[in-house]
Amino acid sequence: MKCPIHLSALAFSCKISNLHLKKEKIQKRGKMVLFLLMIACLCIYLLYLQRRKQGLPPGNLGLPFIGETLQLVSAYKTDNPEPFIDARVRRYGSLFTTHVFGEPTVFSTDPEANRFVLQNEGKLFESSYPSSISNLLGRHSLLLMKGNLHKRMHSLTMSFANSSIIRDHLLVDIDRLVRFNLQRWDGLILLQDETKKITFELTVKQLMSFDPGEWTESLRKEYLLLIEGFFSVPIPFFFTTYGRALQARTKVAAALRERVRERKERRKERKGEEEKDMLGALLDEGEGGFSEEEAVDFLLALLVAGYETTSTIMTLAVKFLTETPSALALLKEEHEGIRAKKKESDALDWSDYKSMPFTQCVINETLRVANIISGVFRRAVSDVHIKGYTIPKGWKVFASFRAVHLDQDLYKDARTFNPWRWQNNPPPSSPGNIYTPFGGGPRLCPGYELARVEISVFLHHLVTGFSWFPAEKDRLVFFPTTRTLKRYPIQVRRRKMP
Ligand code: HEM
User: What are phi and psi of 237, to 5 degrees?
Assistant: First the structure.
């Protein structure tokens, strides 16, 4: 048997050895952290060496793992994100290397390089979205399609939204639905929310010939949750924004699937009297080809693509016009001239749309200054030589439209809203143009004309039907999307029935 002295000596020596163990553990952890730091530094150094060897553009990869993401995000959360790009262009030139959103990336602020990237989509580059985005869009969406299927579906989408289809079929509904929404406006409104409602209803009508009602409203509620997912941290638990977005996606897809089935049934019965909408075009094209799932993903992505973009441009055009009274006065004059030749209840027709030159200047300038899609990510599919540099296979490139559109050497007073600058300029779609709010090449936005018509009709009914003033001071932010911080609250007053 051990005596108490022995026991306490034992306990004491145990404590000492415990202390030793703890100390050893701390030392081990310290060594591990040091080791990891050394590995991270080594990786950065190797990347740096590799970059020099491979002829990448100069730049800075920033901190291990997070790179320069925090600098970019904090710049884009202000109403003046330009210093992030300006500082790097000054230091490294119009093409520079950075590390954002988890990957080293070549950032292009050069119009020629951007054009090269856009035109070589599917050859030297391909569009690239993280899997968190693909899961929300669905793998059969046009934005994720590649190769021949993409070509076929892109031209189908273009043909559904081309000028003659808009003129002959879509314009009448655009006019009707814009008026229908504006009729209810009175007093305080959040313009960003109202324009979103308009573009959602327009898109549902164009895709599936559905008028606003209970079904579209319940779809819209789920759809809003889905949209939030695109701008959230992609953690897929049921209580996170992203998790709720995935659940909403399932519900939206189920609702769309029901419509696709219904339409298929009706087509069998009616034969030849189908609605002239995107779903009809899809089912025509799809005879024996498209599955229900493909049609659903396709419709869902179109609903996403045209909604946030067009509604934000509507809102920002109003904001910029409010802040530039002389431009608003000229716009009013243009639209009152058109209205004066028509009865109050007459819908706008194609010739009215074609006689809105200053409106087009306002839209061009809003797109230029706001840059809803500030640029596009692409991945190099092989080593690409561009402007004396080499972008290695697998690297990401960000073609920044924003940097070009706000470049002081390319546009006089580039950072000022000045719609008159477009009055005597060649049309923005002319070849060689550096103005690319709708992208370019094989992925050129198929909704570019539709968006313009929708915005023009909206501005027409707004300026001829209402007067307004800002209810609060509001400002622009650019992360996670371009928007006004307070959804642009305004007080509206009816001038006459829109
Ligand atoms: C002001 C409004 C809009 C802006 C600024 C805009 C901008 C863009 C841009 C820059 C792209 C190219 C993306 C890339 O190259 O990766 C694009 C693609 C696309 N847009 Fe738009 N868009 C607008 C409205 C619309 C509308 C109304 C529709 C509805 C038809 C639409 C449907 C699409 C689709 C489906 C794509 C993907 C094309 C593809 O990947 O082949 N957009 N848009």
Answer: -90, 155
- Alpha-carbon distance 417 to 411, whole Å? 11
**pLDDT (0 to 100) of residue 498:** 46
Mutation to probe ligand 1, out of 307, 445, 483 (largest number of atoms < 8 A from CB):
445
* Residue 373 alpha carbon, nearest atom of ligand 1: 10
Q: Which pLDDT value is given to residue 296?
A: 92
Q: Tell whether ligand 1 has an atom less than 6 A from the beta carbon of residue 451.
A: yes
Q: Are residues 447 and 401 in the same domain?
A: no
| 314 CB near ligand 1 (under 6 Å) | no
The last residue of one of the domains, among 405, 426, 459, is 405
> How many CA atoms lie less than 13 Å away from 157 in the CB half-sphere?
27
**Structure token pair of residue 341:** 């030749």
Q: DSSP per residue over 88-142, as a string?
A: HHHHH-SEEEEEETTEEEEEE--HHHHHHHHHTBTTTEEE---HHHHHHH-TTST
Which among 349, 372, 358 is positioned nearest to 457, based on CA atoms?
349
Residues in the chain predicted with pLDDT less than 50, given as ranges, are 1-16, 497-498
Say if residue 461 is in the same domain as residue 388: no
Say what the pLDDT of residue 311 is: 97
437 lines ligand 1 (CB under 6 A): yes
* Together in a domain, 321 and 390: no
Q: Which residues pair with 165 in a beta bridge?
A: none
Cα 87 to Cα 74: distance, rounded to the nearest angstrom = 15
Tokens of 35: 């080791």
State residue 44's pLDDT score.
64
The pLDDT of residue 30 is 79
- Last residue in a domain, options 405, 421, 455: 405
Ligand 1 contact, 145 CB (< 6 A): no
Phi, psi (degrees; rounded to nearest 5) at 264? -60, -45
Q: Which two tokens stand for residue 490?
A: 């305004």
Ligand 1 contact via 229 beta carbon (within 6 Å): no
Q: Which helix (H) or strand (E) holds 490?
A: strand 489-494
Nearest-CA residue for ligand 1 atom 30 is 447
SS3 label, residue 449: helix
Task: Look at residues 481, 406, 446 and name the one whose alpha carbon lies nearest to residue 111.
Answer: 406
Nearest atom in ligand 1 to 372's CA: 5
DSSP per-residue letters across 28-49 = HHHHHHHHHHHHHHHHHHHHHH
pLDDT of 29: 80
Structural domain harbouring 413: 139-371+406-494
DSSP 405: H
Ligand 1 atom at minimal distance to the Cα of residue 441? 15
Ligand 1 atom with the smallest distance to the CA of 401 is 10
Contact status, residue 462 vs residue 318, Cβ threshold 8 Å: yes
